[in-house]
Amino acid sequence: MAHAASRVRNWLEQVAGVEINVLRIEALSMTETRDQTSSHSLTKMIGEVLERGDIAVVVTKVNGPGPIGSKLLIQPDRDLFGSLGDAELDSLVVSQAERFLASREETRMFSVSEFASQLPFARETSLLFERLQPAPRLVICGAGHVGASLARLAAFAGYHATLIDDRAEFLKRELFPEEQIELLVANDWSSAVREAVGNGRGVSVAVVTRGHNEDEQCMQAVVRANPDYAGLIGSKRRTSIVIDRLREAGVSAEQLKKIRAPIGLDIGAVTPEEVALAIMAEIVAERRGGSGSPLSAWRRKDI
């Protein structure tokens, strides 16, 4: 009898063990499915953000209580997607994300104690902030010597360049074999600029045409698109004429102040290539939040 009971008990334990293992496998499978679905949804949402040309922040939990690797996408309108596993933390992260965006940094690690020290798990939780933005674009109006040099330099620097001119012979593909350079023949300057600039997010515009009229047509379209950067080539007198015309056409003082005219940093540029370098340097400084001053300035002060 005892032997039979033992056999039954062993059989029950084996059956129970199999059943428990099956339940555990099913539970793990459901969790993995949810994680995969969430990851797929986040990837899709990120794609939509980039397609719109928006700038957003992805925050990832690197260590701390709760699910490691959980992500929160913070969009420009403060709309949230995903979660870091704590509703209060999700809410407090939004303001920190705005400060992170203002810093122009690409990525940065933060301890939660740096911005939400009141949370009980603040000191043991670290978050990785990553800037999400479209690849930088440069729209160049005018394919003369400076415009052509600028397009090549921008492509070399990792920008997608759109080179616009109303002279088709200046935009032959054999002159610009680089894949990163798009060539656009303008039947109408304003329409071509509007098409190239789009909503202006992540876009810099350099107006380097051959005359006042072309400059003005381009700038009329540029100021309405509100790109991240807008610059106009020419002397103080030439650029002042264009800006005065824009003011007379009703462009606001705030919009006019954003125009870099004359365009570029003062590096004593003479040749078209040097002028292109001065322009590109200012564009990068604006995008990255640089001052444009010499990195060695601090040393000379101490000598």
Describe the structure.
With 303 residues, the protein is an alpha/beta fold. The chain has two domains: 53-133; 137-288, Rossmann fold, CATH 3.40.50. Helices cover 47% and strands 18% of the residues. The protein has nine helices and eleven strands. It has helices spanning 2-52, 87-102, 145-156, 189-197, 212-225, 236-248, 253-257, 272-288, 297-302, and strands spanning 56-63, 71-74, 80-82, 107-111, 126-132, 137-141, 160-165, 181-185, 203-207, 229-232, 259-260. The protein has a six-stranded parallel sheet with strand order 8-7-6-9-10-11, sandwiched between helices. The protein has a five-stranded antiparallel sheet with strand order 3-2-1-5-4, sandwiched between helices. β2 and β3 form a beta hairpin. α3 crosses α8 (272-288). It starts with a helix and ends with a helix. Residues 1-34 have low confidence and may be disordered.
Question: Care to give the gist of this entry?
Answer:
With 303 residues, the chain is α/β, with parallel strands linked by helices. The protein has nine helices and eleven strands. β9 (203-207), α5 and β10 (229-232) form a beta-alpha-beta unit.
Structural class: alpha/beta
Question: How many domain regions?
Answer: 2
From the 3D structure, determine the CATH topology of the largest domain.
Rossmann fold
Tell me how many strands there are. Answer: 11
What is the count of DSSP helices, taking H or I runs of 4+ residues? 9
Can you tell me the CATH architecture of the largest domain?
Answer: 3-Layer(aba) Sandwich
State mean pLDDT (0 to 100 scale).
86
* Element string (H = helix, E = strand): HEEEHEEEHEEHEHEHHEHH
Q: How would you write the strand order of the largest sheet?
A: 8-7-6-9-10-11
The CATH superfamily of the largest domain bears the name NAD(P)-binding Rossmann-like Domain
Evaluate the radius of gyration. 28 Å
Strand content: 15-25%
Kindly, what is the distance between the CA atoms of the first and last residues, rounded to a whole number of angstroms?
99 Å
Bulk shape: elongated
The helix fraction, in percent, is 40-55%
Please identify the top-level CATH class of the largest domain. Answer: Alpha Beta
Characterize the largest beta sheet: strand count, sense, and whether it forms a barrel: 6 strands, parallel
Low-confidence stretches: 1-34
